[in-house]
Amino acid sequence: MKNNGVFGQTEAADLIFQSQGKRLLAIPEIGGLLTCYDSAIEATQRAMGEAGMGLSCGRCSKDTGSCCFQEVETWYDHRLLLINLLLSGDLPRSREVEGECLFLGERGCRLRARYAFCLNYFCPMLKARFGLDLLKTLLAAVGRELAAGWELEQALDRRLQKHL
Fold first, then answer.
1. Which residue blocks in 77-123 are alpha helix, DSSP H?
2. Which among 55, 86, 124, 153 counts the fewest CB atoms within 10 Å?
3. d(CA 109, CA 56)
4. 19-30: string of b/e by CB count within 10 Å (b at 16+)?
């Protein structure tokens, strides 16, 4: 599917979710992979929360601008947006923080499933604050989350190819 901007990708995800969402959620393989991915997301969020990353990133977006800059949302394709719909049933449709990513809210990202850059990027301030050992721990959690997301995307692609 051609990337024609975030709203085109959102529309594509919405159409697939409306036409195939219930069927996809009823497939045991997809349900199991969604559960695994959601658990991996939870583990990453818990590790980042314990490290205080949310507070630091929230402050940064207000004070100096952030890695959640406007246009990051255009990196999201219909598959990752569809996964967000399957996990939570909702996608942000309007910007909450002017001049920043469409998905950034006052308390961080409003998406459950996030793009690899959004998980892997640690600015110089965070790197200095966390140190190497904590960064390794956080990146290990991120790696498990990304692997679980990739497995889910592959399974969704296989299932959707059969029905398109």
1. 78-88, 116-120
2. 124
3. 13
4. ebbeebeeeeeb
* pLDDT tens digit sequence for 53-107: 876 666 666 666 678 888 899 999 999 999 999 998 789 999 988 888 899 887 7
- Are the beta carbons of 118 and 68 closer than 8 angstroms? yes
pLDDT digits (tens, 9 = 90+) for 19-64: 999 999 999 999 999 999 999 999 999 999 898 887 666 666 666 6
Amino acid at 110: R
User: What pTM does this model have?
Assistant: 0.89
Do the beta carbons of residue 73 and residue 102 sit within 8 Å?
yes
* Cβ-based neighbours of 45, under 8 Å, separated by 6 or more: none
Angstrom CA distances, 75 to 56, 62, 71, 155, stand at: 23, 22, 8, 21
Measured between its terminal Cα atoms, the distance across the chain in Å is 12
CA distance 57 to 108: 8
E strand map for 5-136 = 104-105, 108-109
